[in-house]
Design goal:
The complex is a heterodimer of chains A (161) and B (577).
Chain A lengths: L1 E9 L4 H11 L6 E6 L5 E9 L2 H13 L3 E6 L5 E12 L2 H13 L3 E5 L3 E8 L1 H10 L5 E13 L6
Antiparallel strand pairs in A: 1-3, 1-4, 2-3, 5-7, 5-8, 6-7
Chain B lengths: L6 E3 H12 L3 E4 L6 H8 L5 E4 L3 H15 L3 E5 L3 H4 L2 H9 L4 E7 L15 H5 L5 E4 L6 H13 L5 E7 H5 L1 E3 L19 H13 L3 E5 L1 H5 L3 H11 L3 E3 L14 E4 L6 H9 L2 E5 L5 H4 L10 E6 L13 E4 L2 H14 L6 H15 L15 H11 L5 E4 L3 H9 L8 E2 L10 H11 L5 E6 H4 L5 H7 L5 E6 L4 H10 L15 H7 L3 E5 L2 H13 L5 E6 L31
Parallel strand pairs in B: 2-3, 2-4, 4-5, 5-7, 6-7, 9-10, 9-12, 10-11, 12-13, 13-14, 15-16, 15-17, 17-18, 18-20, 19-20
Antiparallel strand pairs in B: 1-8
Helix pairs in contact in B: 1-2, 1-7, 3-5, 3-18, 9-14, 11-14, 12-15, 16-17, 16-23
The chains are: A alpha+beta (161), B alpha/beta (577).
The structure holds flavin-adenine dinucleotide (FAD), thiamine diphosphate (TPP) and magnesium ion.
């Protein structure tokens, strides 16, 4: 099963490699991993998407908690939560394609953020599924470059981790 | 008026911090990146520096010291090759959860990343085999980092911590103050067990008809032997120890059924297989213990007490997990059991013991006592008798290690010192050196094999320099016996590269290092040789016992087999029970 883990960790030079090293050393899956400092510059927030049986995800959570730099681990998938991912995509956009792409971007509530004579660069946020659906709806031949941020997540409601 | 703090150089801070931490012994080896520190060590006498002959030896010595005393072992080495030479020792300590702080020198901060002379990424190389590591980038962080390192190494589930110190940090100066306490928001080890879980465990324990206590290294690390003994005696239940747990419960006690696992006793493994309630205490269900997981304890409800949540239910599902320090949890659990109206089911327990005694009666550790050629088991048995079971025994890895575990009956914790998790050949001699340093008046012996012994043989020099007269019991079978045994059983006797050719003359070798050597070739001479060696209190004696080349370790559960599927010695009439 897919799980989305939220971590608070010390904003230290080695902290990220401790987490990624743990995953490779113990042969755990990582689908995506994003990290950036929080409002407290000494703390980073990481969102990690992984998959595995309940036992494996339990081990992953315990092993993460055991890392001395990790302050807190929450499995967001255990309760109601929101996930978002940022997509930046560059497409060939010439003559007749320009209108059609613009319409599709509007349907998916994206934005065209850069334009040349022959290309569009589009920004879009949403769940991974939505971004997949958008990419699927495009003519593959038009795609020049895809950049995805990986998932960030937060729990619904007034509770903070 | 507040006293103004002293301004010290990094190298001085290092020495002062060790002193303030209460460190008495430091195992090390100098080099460019740590020369400022060595200069300061020269000027002080609070910390005694032991100069080893190879950095691996320093780490194993500190490890042996830590296992025997319960205090953290401390190591200092230079950057580059000094640091890389420590890795095997660090991984050894990590696998067995041994508290240790290893200081590695590093090139100056402005040189880091430049492929500078003797630069390695010590933090990166050691990351997967330390509990935690620190790079000190500013002299102002040095004292606090040292405090943190000792705190992390010695609390919770202990483990090795590396502190990497760039050379310029040891030259820079700042105010010195050693912190008196540590508070880390990201690291808060649990101590007390959950009362609700302890209550459920007590009820299950008292309802058992075929109970089994399986305790491990966690009891020793927690200094909880007394609590374990109290708990076990109160219940009257059978108890087994892992290789790492030997000595946590007295081996000569009638409730002790021997070690379990791959080379455990028939009775311990059969009792594990048939038990209905398994009480795991500071033991981590290693694959050398469980064998085939699908066949492991098929009838048992399992209680597991461990300080590390990630040890719980890692390999085997657990019915009642208790996270906490064994010492506290057992104290609470025993109190609850003593106060309970329920009592153990004496009738069922008696039947269970009858069954266990029947298993014991096959005498699974039997060996041929009629041979002129020396049986390795006999040497250990004799050594046990002659030392009244009081010696500190270190070991290397192989058959001799298993025989030492089976035939030396450890009644006290911290007396059996071996590398279980990593299985590091070369551990025994330097570890014995560390133990002897801590306990100069006790008998300290290294039971080893001719292949393991040469892996850190250089430490014989260190033993001479510091007057560390350990007894080396070399069970010389002219084979990598453990490898040969597997090749005999599983590779149709193709002894690929397991025969040791060009074996040194260990008597001359000992003598060339300034020690005493003996060669013993007949069973009849074993007793006298051991007595002579023990009588030479101030001498390191290397006893080269020429033993039976083809002796195997029994019982044996082949990898991937169930616990009840044991090979027994050819001398017993039951094979593969
Ligand atoms: C050649 C060879 C053969 C071997 N054969 C066998 C064999 O037949 N039988 C056998 O048993 N082993 C054998 N081993 C050793 C085996 O590989 C493991 O090292 C060993 O079984 C682990 O012991 P343990 O479960 O006691 O765990 P340890 O490694 O000692 O771990 C201790 C556990 O206790 C926990 N703990 C630590 N401190 C505390 C505390 N204060 N409170 C609570 N919990 C704590 C830790 O979190 C950990 O889970 C062999 C090794 C070699 C090299
Ligand atoms: C550093 C290291 N290399 C290899 C091994 C694999 N190994 C385990 S036991 C063994 C043979 C040990 O031979 P010896 O020390 O003579 O002991 P014996 O089994 O003969 O008693 C080997 C090579 C190991 N455990 N450690
Ligand atoms: Mg040998």
């Amino acid at each position: 099963m897919r799980h989305i883990l939220s971590l608070l960790l010390e904003n230290e030079a080695g902290a990220l490699s401790r987490v990624s090293g743990l995953f490779s050393a113990r042969a755990f899956n990582i689908e995506s991993l994003t990290v950036a400092p929080t409002e407290d510059p000494t703390v980073s927030r990481m969102t990690l998407v992984t998959s595995g049986s309940d036992e494996i995800v339990e081990q992953i959570t315990k092993q993460l908690n055991k890392l001395v730099d990790v302050i807190k681990v929450v499995d967001l998938s255990e309760s109601r939560h929101i996930e978002r991912e940022l997509l930046l995509i560059k497409l060939t956009a010439k003559n007749d394609h320009r209108e059609e792409i613009k319409r599709l971007v509007d349907i998916f509530r994206g934005h065209i953020i850069d334009v040349t004579d022959s290309s569009y660069t589009i920004e879009m946020t949403g769940s991974g599924d939505k971004l997949d659906a958008f990419i699927d709806a495009l003519d593959k031949k038009l795609i020049l470059e895809v950049v995805r941020s990986g998932v960030s997540g937060i729990a619904r409601g007034d509770k903070a981790i | 008026m507040a006293k103004s703090k002293e301004i010290l150089r990094g190298a001085e801070i290092f020495c002062r911090a060790l002193k303030d931490e209460g460190v008495k012994h430091l195992f090390g080896y100098p080099g460019g990146a740590v020369l400022h520190i060595y200069d300061e060590l020269f000027k002080q006498d609070a910390v005694e520096h032991i100069l080893v002959r190879h950095e691996q030896g320093a780490v194993h010595a500190a490890d042996g010291y830590a296992r025997a005393t319960g205090m953290p072992g401390v190591v200092l080495v230079t950057s580059g090759p000094g640091a890389t030479n420590t890795v095997t020792g660090i991984a050894t300590a990590f696998m067995d959860s041994i508290p240790m702080v290893v200081f590695t020198g590093q090139v100056a901060t402005h040189m880091i990343g430049n492929d500078a002379f003797q630069e390695v990424d010590a933090i990166g190389i050691t990351r997967p085999c330390v509990k935690h590591n620190f790079l000190v980038k500013d002299v102002k962080e040095l004292a606090a980092t040292i405090k943190h390192a000792f705190y992390v190494a010695t609390t919770g589930r202990p483990g090795p911590v590396v502190v990497d110190i760039p050379k310029d940090v040891t030259a820079d100066s700042c105010e010195y103050e050693y912190p008196t306490s540590v508070d880390m928001r990201s690291y808060k080890p649990v101590v007390k067990g959950h009362p609700g879980q302890i209550k459920r465990a007590a009820e299950l324990i008292l309802s058992a008809k075929k109970p089994m206590i399986y305790s491990g290294g966690g009891v020793i690390l927690s200094n909880a032997s007394e609590e374990l003994t109290d708990f076990t005696r109160e219940l009257g239940y059978p108890i087994t120890n892992t290789l790492m747990g030997l000595g946590a419960y007295p081996a000569t006690d009638k409730q002790f059924v021997g070690m379990l696992g791959m080379h455990g006793t028939y009775e311990a493994n059969m009792a594990m297989h048939h038990c209905d309630v398994l009480i795991a205490i500071g033991a981590r269900f290693d694959d050398r213990v469980t064998g085939d997981l699908d066949q492991f304890c098929p009838y048992a409800k399992i209680i597991q007490i461990d300080i590390d949540p990630s040890s719980i239910a890692k390999n085997v599902p657990v019915d009642i997990p208790i996270v906490g320090d064994v010492k506290h949890v057992l104290t609470d659990l025993t109190a609850l059991i003593k106060a309970s109206k329920n009592k153990p089911d004496t009738e069922a327990i008696k039947l269970w013991w009858d069954q266990i005694k029947e298993w014991q009666s096959i005498d699974c550790l039997k060996f041929d006592r009629t041979t002129e050629v020396i049986k390795p088991q006999y040497v250990i048995e004799k050594f046990y008798e002659l030392t009244n079971g009081d010696a500190y025994v270190t070991s290397d890895v192989g058959q001799h290690q298993m025989w030492a575990a089976q035939f030396y009956k450890f009644d006290k914790p911290r007396h059996w010192i071996n590398s279980g998790g990593l299985g590091t050949m070369g551990f025994g001699l330097p570890a014995a050196m560390g133990v002897k340093l801590a306990f100069p008046d006790d008998v300290v012996a290294c039971i080893t094999g001719e292949a393991s012994l040469v892996m850190c043989i250089q430490e014989l020099s260190t033993c001479l320099q510091y007057g560390l007269p350990v007894k080396v019991i070399n069970l010389n079978n002219r084979y990598m016996g453990m490898v040969r045994q597997w090749q005999e059983f599983f590779y149709a006797g193709r002894y690929s590269h397991s025969y040791m050719e060009a074996i040194p003359d260990f008597v001359k070798l000992a003598e060339s290092f300034g020690h005493t050597g003996m060669r013993i070739e007949k069973t009849a001479d074993v007793d006298g040789a051991l007595k002579d060696a023990l009588a030479m209190k101030d001498k390191l004696v290397m006893m080269d016992f020429i033993t039976d080349q083809t002796e195997n370790v029994y019982p044996m559960i082949a990898s991937g087999k169930g616990q009840h599927e044991m090979h027994l010695p050819p001398t017993t009439d039951r094979e593969l029970a």
